[in-house]
Structures are given as structure tokens and as C-alpha cells.
Amino acid sequence: MVNWTQTHDCCFETDRVPQLLERVEREDDTEAWKELGYRLVLEHDLVSPAGFAALPRLVRLASDSAEARHLAGRILERAAGHHGCDDLLADCADAVAEFRELLDGHLRSRPADYLVTFRALLAVEEQYHWAAVLGDFTDDFYHLACPHCAVEVTIAIGGYGRYSAIRDWNLGDVDRRDLRPAPAGGYSGVGRWMHETAVRDREDGLADGIAHLFGEAECPSCASVFGIADEYTSANGPVLC
At 199, is the secondary structure helix, strand, or coil? Predict the structure, then answer.
């Protein structure tokens, strides 16, 4: 049982969130959902204690409510942040497991909010760095340091090309080198799961983008070849206790 008198939201109030939850449980109230969003999650990284306290109730609503599903996903995408609510998050273990099954079932239906749901499931699997940046591969860029010569390399995966380059702010991306997508059967770990899920759901554009993301790039400066996803994870993956 949540003690709401000791659980503040992003406005440092303790009584408003339970009132709003009761409203959305009774009816699909657009204004109540909007207010819940900014009271539970700040724009960028911070989740309030009330966000984690509300998570089980949001998950119970998520099978019938896109608003509940998206808000629960936003909360979990920030679960690796410095929120100081590890005890509240631990209490949500059963709700998170239930949310995992719900999200996977929703993905199988090939919904309009497929990418949002995919990112939420990445957060459930504690792949926070991918949940934060994964796009639809129409206009995606990743900036990495070459592990061999340390020069900054721009990785582009989009409709304009799939390449590594040196970014020049006057000339654009110069000295482009084609990416080398991961071959069939060349995946492991989260990359394999991501690719197999996209293929299963016939999300061909997403699957192709993931193949390049978990493939290899050539550094335009020193010509060394490195794994894109490995370098991005090394630089951006959170250190989980």
C-alpha cells in the first residue's frame, strides 16, 4: 500500500496524483492524463517518487489505455537515473513483469505506436541507452569515438544513407564509408532479441536499421573497423548497481 502523504510528485505535492489516478481509472480523461504526465515525469530525465508509486496502477490500465501504456514506458525509460527511489522501483517488480508481457503482446499486433512500445520494452529489459535513442531509422545519427584513434565518428542510418563519416560543420559529413550490417546469425545478446522481434513483427525498416546498428563501421581517419553497438553501449550504457 502506497503512503501517498510521503510520496511527492514533480511539483512536490503529495495529494494530487492519487486524485488523478482515480479520475483516469473511472474514465479516459485527457486533461487528467496530461497533468499526470508532468507530475510524474519531468521533460528529460527525472522521475518523481510518485511516478514509481503510480506504476502498478498504470500497468493495470495499460492493456486498454495507450496513455497509461506510454506513461508507464516513459517512467521505466528513466529508471536508471539518479532518482533515489530504488526501494519504490523494487516494489514494482511484479508490475514490471506484467508490463513486459503486455508490451510484447501489443507489439505482435503491429500497432501504430510500435516504436514507442518497442522502446518501452527495451526499458523493461534495462536497455536504457537504446530506449532513449532508438529511432525509426529515417534520420538517425550516433556519434562515437573511434576506439583506435579516438577521432569522433558520425554514424548515419537513414533514408539518405548508412555510413560512417567525419562531420564537418561547413562541409557536412565527409569521407563517408559504407556500414557493414550484421550478417544473418551474426547477432548476440540484446541485438539478437531486437532484430528477431522486428523481423517477427514484419517491421522491415526497423529490422534493417538494427542490422546496421549492430554491424560494423570503418573509421574514416585510421581505417580501423569496430562494432557500432559495442562502442555506443560502452560510452552510453548506464552502470547498474
Answer: helix
β-strand partners of 149:
none
198 in Cβ contact with 114 (< 8 Å): no
- pTM for the model stands at 0.90
- Taking residue 225's Cβ as centre, other Cβ atoms within 10 Å add up to 12
- Tell me the C-alpha distance between 12 and 7, whole Å: 9
The answer to whether residues 68 and 98 touch, using CB atoms and an 8 Å cutoff, is no
What is the residue-level pLDDT of the chain in tens, covering all 241 positions? 788 888 999 999 999 999 999 999 999 999 999 999 999 998 667 888 999 999 999 999 999 999 999 999 999 998 876 666 778 888 889 999 999 999 999 999 999 999 999 999 999 999 999 999 999 999 999 999 999 999 999 999 998 899 999 999 889 999 999 999 999 888 889 999 999 999 999 999 999 999 999 999 999 999 999 999 999 999 987 655 4
Q: Where are the alpha helices (DSSP H) in the chain?
A: 16-26, 30-40, 49-61, 66-77, 86-90, 93-108, 114-124, 128-133, 189-200, 204-213, 228-236
Contact 182, 111 (CB under 8 A): no
Three state DSSP letters for 136-151: CCCEEEEEEECCCCCC
CA distance 202 to 156: 23
